[in-house]
Structures are given as C-alpha cells and as structure tokens.
Amino acid sequence: MSREPNPITEGPPVPPAQAWGHGRAAFAFIFVTVLLDMLALGIIVPVLPKLIIRFEHGDMSMAATQTGIFAFVWAAMQFVFAPVMGALSDRFGRRPVVLLSNFGLGCDYLLMAVAPTLSWLFVGRVISGITAASFPTANAYIADVTPPENRAAKFGMLGAAFGLGFVVGPALGGMLGGMGLRYPFWAAAILSLANALYGFFILPESLPKQRRAAFSFKKANPMGALKLLRSHPELLGLATAMFLYYNAHEALPSMFVIYTDYRYHWGTQLTGWALAGVGVGSTIVSAVLISLAVRKLGELRTLFTGMVCGMVGFATFAFAPNTAIFVIGIPLLSLWGLTSPPMQSLMSRCVGGSEQGQLQGALMSLFGVAGMIAPLVFTQVFAVAIAPRWGFHFPGAPYCLASALLVGSLAIAWSVTRRGVQAGAVSEVSAAK
Question: Most CB within 10 Å of its CB: which of 104, 236, 284, 334?
C-alpha cells in the first residue's frame, strides 16, 4: 500500500536512485537556504557590539569584555550542538533539521530585537549559537546529492553563499542600524522565517530512509563526534590539518580591525572597504575559481595552492611596512579559499553516506574549539608583541603565527595525501561502508 510523503520530514521527494541526477536542483535549494541564513547572521554583525555598548552605558572597556564573552559563548554553543544537529540529520534527514534551525533563528532574532536588558541579549546569543549549528547539515546535504568527484566544486559554491552573505549582510545591517540599532534584528528575523517557509515548500529531502543511521548520544556529544575523526588514520590527519586551518582563520576576525588601526591608522570606512574586499574575493574564488582549479589541477594541487597563498598572505600582513603592501595580502588570502572545499571533499570520502552529518558536525565542533581558543591566543600574542616591557616591538607577530599554523597544516595534509588518501584509502573505506 502506497504512503503519502510527510511534508515536514520529506518535502518534495528526490528518488534515491536519481539523487545525483537531481543534484543540481537540490543544490540550488540548499544554496538559497544557506545564503539567506548568512544574510541574517551578517546583518547583525555591525550593530551587536554597539547595542552591547548601549547596555553598558558607553563603558567601552566593559563592552569590549562583554563582546568577547558573547563571541566565546557563541563558539561554545557551536562546539556542543553542531554534533547533535549532525547526528539528528543522519537519523531524521537533513530537511527537518534545516527547517527547525531556520525557524529557531527567526524566533531568536525576534527575542534579540526586543531584548530589554543585556542578559536577555545574552540568552538570545546563546540560542543563536545553538540554532546556527545546523550549518554542518548543509554540507552533509551536498555530500548526499553530489558524486564524490564533484564535491569540491559544490563545497566551494556553498562557500560562495557564505561569502556573499557576509558581504551583503553587514552592509545592509549598517544601513538599517543607522536608522535604529534594533532594525537589523527585525530584518534578520524576517529573513530567517522566510527561509523556513521557503524550505518547507521547496527544499527536498536528500537522505533516503535506507541510508539513515540510528541516533546515539554517544556519537552526538562533541567528544563522541570527534571519535569519528579518529576512526581512520587518513581522516584523523586531514582533521588535524583542518583544525590548524581553522585556528589560522581566526586571525582575521580577531585581529584585522585592531591591527590595521594600530599599525596603519585606518579609519572605520577604510576598514569596512577592506573587509568587503576580502569577502568579495573569497566569493569569487568559491563560486568560480575552485571549480576551474579542481578541473585543471585536481583536488590535491588545488588544496596545496590555496594553502601556500594563505601562508604568503598572512606573512604579507605581518611584514607590510605600509597600507599599499598590506593590501597585496588581501587577494592572496582570498585565494586561500581554494583550500577548504578540496579538504572537505577528501574527508567526505572517508565515511559512508549515513555518517556525513556526523562528520560535518565533528568538523563544526573543531571550528567551535578554534573559535574559543584562537582569538584569545592571537590577541595575547599581539599584546605581548607591542608591550614596551618585553623589549621588542613586532605587531605583526599574530599573523606570523597564523602563517606558521598553515605551514603545519600543509605539512600534515601533504603527509596524509602522500600515503594515498585520494588514490586508494578513501575509495576502500567508502566501499566498505
């Protein structure tokens, strides 16, 4: 007897035998979903610190401390709940997790829009960290509907959605924030709730029931999820390289503004244009260059090329004597975006279809750990490097550290792939699954 599909958990069906054939349309759905999510997140970036300053009655020192706590807690929620979201998507499918996240984010932004005190705003930020932890589900969705040889390009396109959201979102948030600090939160709520409606009517399920895995709290907690990364030597090596990559990446959001202000005396407008330039460059790399590079160079050479560009870009930031030289590092760091999609593609081949959500959740937990640790490390290195009492003055030290982290990441990735991850080990593990 035939059964009508459940519109909440399944949506428009994608037949398992034809899933890859429908991959382009399914990818378009998830691309729009991620883009709207990132627009909503990006919109509040320019105004959240200012709202905290208002709650602290203009006390900049206290506001800076509170902003750091907000960032730490958001990353901590990502660390804890990303594996849960990933495991839930492996059990119940990607679609319900994405819909729940979008609806939760919308309600959370409404809460933050009307928050009467800093404590309420803090609660909203905690909820935002939990509900935004569905991003791994989007990556798992791509692995579901894309053949292994095309995943790097698709992961790159998804990265373009992230980049575009963070280019347009802050600009829109700044414009709305000029009319009132609460307006960007209302706009973010509308975007997220509209995204939930879009997903309900349009987004198909990508994970057939026969490929789903039982939910396990042992796997869903952060430590349990990270055990998956230790299940194969190749996967562990690539995960270690990715963790160093994540830590180096934190040098941008944690240091860019304070470093350029201290060393080159940039104003707010120039800083904003420079950050927009990084976002635009990263979007172009993700949307266009990754696909071309993978076709011409292959995944491994694309990965290594991106890593070298990142190393040189951070070194340029560290030693640039003036603004003109510093700006040269921006396109180099944009080309660093060639690294992550091939790395994710290689890692996705190390696990079976029923573990893609768990894998992406584990990677997001690594990102959360880096988000908690690296900003503290980079800011303290900077403080020591410019403090007179230590007898030396080298403000570029944090970016030297970031470049060194990428040297370690490149060395590990090269060692792992040299043993044949792409050629043999990955295919054998995938076949066994």
Answer: 334
pLDDT digits (tens, 9 = 90+) for 262-272: 888 886 567 66
Contact indicator for 380, 241 with CB cutoff of 8 Å:
no
User: 76-111: string of b/e by CB count within 10 Å (b at 16+)?
Assistant: bbbbbbbbbbbbbbbbbbbbbbbbbbbbbbbbbbbb
Mean pLDDT confidence for 85-98: 85
Q: What domains, with CATH codes, occur in the chain?
A: 18-207 (1.20.1250.20), 223-433 (1.20.1250.20)
CB atoms within 10 A of CB 189: 21
pLDDT band for position 3 (50/70/90)? very low
Distance CA 176, CA 173 (A): 5
List the one residue out of 119, 260, 166, 136 whose CA is nearest residue 174.
166
Assess whether pLDDT exceeds 80 at residue 346.
yes
Mean pLDDT over 237-247 rounds to 92
Share of the chain above pLDDT 70, in %: 83
Rounded Cα distance between 245 and 247, Å, is: 5
d(CA 247, CA 314): 13
Question: Cα Rg for the chain, rounded, in angstroms?
Answer: 21
The Cα–Cα gap between 130 and 40 comes to 15
Alpha helices in 22-132 (DSSP H): 23-43, 48-55, 60-92, 94-114, 118-131
Helical residues (DSSP H) of 116-182, grouped into ranges? 118-131, 135-145, 151-179
Q: Between 222-229 and 233-249, two packed helices, what is the crossing angle to 10 degrees?
A: 120
Dist. CA 148–CA 291, nearest whole Å: 14
Q: What's the CA gap between 423 and 348, in Å, rounded?
A: 14
Tokens 């399944």, residue located = 10
Exposure string over 142-165, b if 16+ CB within 10 A, otherwise e: bbbbbeeebbbbbbbbbbbbbbbb
Query: Which of 136, 406, 367 lies closest to 244, judged by CA?
Result: 406
- Rounded to two decimals, the pTM is 0.67
Q: Is 433 helix (H, G, I), strand (E, B) or coil?
A: coil
The C-alpha angle with vertex 155 and arms to 153 and 160, in degrees rounded to 5, equals 95
Mean pLDDT score, 132-144:
76
State residue 299 phi and psi, 5-degree precision.
Answer: -65, -45
Return the closest-CA partner of residue 37 out of 176, 158, 205, 201.
Answer: 158
- At residue 352, φ and ψ (nearest 5 deg) are -80, 175
